[in-house]
Every structure is written in C-alpha cells, then in structure tokens.
Specification:
The chain has 197 residues and is α/β, with parallel strands linked by helices. The protein has one domain: Vaccinia Virus protein VP39 (Rossmann fold, 3-Layer(aba) Sandwich), CATH 3.40.50. 39% of the residues lie in helices and 22% in strands. A seven-stranded mixed β-sheet has the order 3-2-1-4-5-7-6, with helices on both faces. It starts with a helix and ends with a strand. The site of S-adenosyl-L-homocysteine has 18 residues, from helix 3 and strand 2.
Length: 197
Amino acid sequence: MVGNYSMIREIKEYAKQNNIPIMVDDGIDFLTTFILKKHVRSILEIGTAIGYSAIMMALVDPNVKITSIERDEKRYLEALKNVKAFDLEDRITLIYNDAFNVKLEEEYDLIFIDAAKAQSIKFFEMFEHNLKTGGAIITDNLKFHGFVEKKECDIPSKNLRALVRKIKDYISYLKSNSRYDTEFLDVGDGISISIKK
Ligand code: SAH
Ligand code: MG
C-alpha cells in the first residue's frame, strides 16, 4: 500500500505535467465511498485518460471490475502501463476506441461518464441500456471549473460558452428524465448521480 501511494502520486504528477484533467480529490473520495456503500461490483467508465480514476475505483474494493474506454492513443497506452504497474489487468479492461463506436452487451452497477463534456446526453443515451435497474450513472465536471455558474457575458470565449450551454442542457435533461432519480452534488468539479428506477 505504501508503494501504491507513491505510484498514485506519480500518476497525479504526470497528469499535472501533461495537462490531463483527472478527477479532483473530493470527487475521487465521493466516488470511492459511493462504490463501497452501494456495494458496486461492475463499472463502465467513459473517458479513461491515463487510468487514474479507474485505478482508484479498483483499489477501493477487490471485488470491483471496470471496463474503461479511451479514444486518445497516447493516454490509452499510458493507462495500460499504469494498470499493469498496479497489477490490475485482471480487474480493469481498457478499450482503445471512440466510445461512440463501442457496443457492449454487459450490464453494470455503475456507469461513470467523464469524457467529452458537450456529449454527455449522447453518452447517457448510448450506454443506459448497459445499466442495471437500481444502478447509477455518475457524471463528472458539471460545474466545469466554475464556468457553469457564471453569466454568459463573463465567459471569455465562444467555444467555452457553447460548452457551458451543453452542460446546462445535460443538467436540464437529467432533471426532466423521469426514468431516473438524479441528485446534483457540489463536490469536486460538480457531480450528478442518476439512479435508474
Ligand atoms: N476519468 C479520468 C479522466 C478522463 S479525462 C480520471 O479522472 O482519471 C476525459 C477523457 O475522455 C480524455 O482522455 C478524452 O480523450 C476522453 N474522451 C473524450 N471523448 C471521448 C470519446 N468519445 N470516446 C472515448 N474517450 C473520450
Ligand atoms: Mg472529470
């Protein structure tokens, strides 16, 4: 475990050096506590990056199995290296592809959406059939570094304004989706938890 701790620090350092947006500490704490409390066994993650969140989720409970999708080759290869370093190849399956090209049959206890922020509705609709009844879809970055709470005129670029609009659309979508009970948490960079009824 002491070895794990320093390896995790190295992954976080790599993410910082290479501008890779891994989940913030509060978000990871929430996610891992949720996995323990709800006895989550199977997880589908959209957006592996370098494997940080997948590894943290796997380490919290030896019964957890994760499938995680990443479309960026360099990040995928780095994730593969990290998963091997933690000896977690048997519990973390990495898929190198655009999530929109991936068809899965399995049903999961938890789907963690942490990929392109403008596409969350599409990811939700594409993978919800892979969620068990009573399972949860958790989405990260609903505050998007605080920009979602800002007035449009205070957001510096057009692209960022468009992205913020998409995130707001996703929030409305979750609120009006009666097949799920959704809670929004002011944790980390903003998290939603949608439980499938
Ligand atoms: N979950 C990671 C961080 C993911 S960052 C962690 O907390 O450690 C988001 C990642 O999603 C990026 O690496 C990006 O390449 C990937 N991504 C974005 N859109 C995607 C898509 N359509 N399919 C697969 N991966 C995607
Ligand atoms: Mg994130």
